User: Fold DUF3085 domain-containing protein from Aromatoleum tolulyticum.
Amino acid sequence: MSVRFKGTDLRPVLAEAVVNQCRVVLVKDQGVYFLAERGERRPDGRQKLIAYAVHCNPDVDAFDDWWELARAEFGGDDFGEFFDPHDGVFALILSGEGDLEVSATATHLSLHAVAPAHNGN
Assistant:
């Protein structure tokens, strides 16, 4: 099992991290998403650029659906994991048309660039 991040959503977040010379953060709390460690803020204080995993966005997906998918893949605890946006898989996403799949075990996160999904998911 894994969650998918659309490259079209993730590329602006990665670009913001590169411009701001900071890391990107994979977060599991109210959904599952990536954001730049130092990103632009909206007037309400929330980060402006956020890339949610497909079906893990609390703004558009039903609570029970995104919560169960996030729990099934990443467990019950909230977390934030930091990555260098220049690392290989992110460079592939930035320079191409791919999506990112993230899966987890009890001890490891795996990130893989994949062909973009063309069915809307």
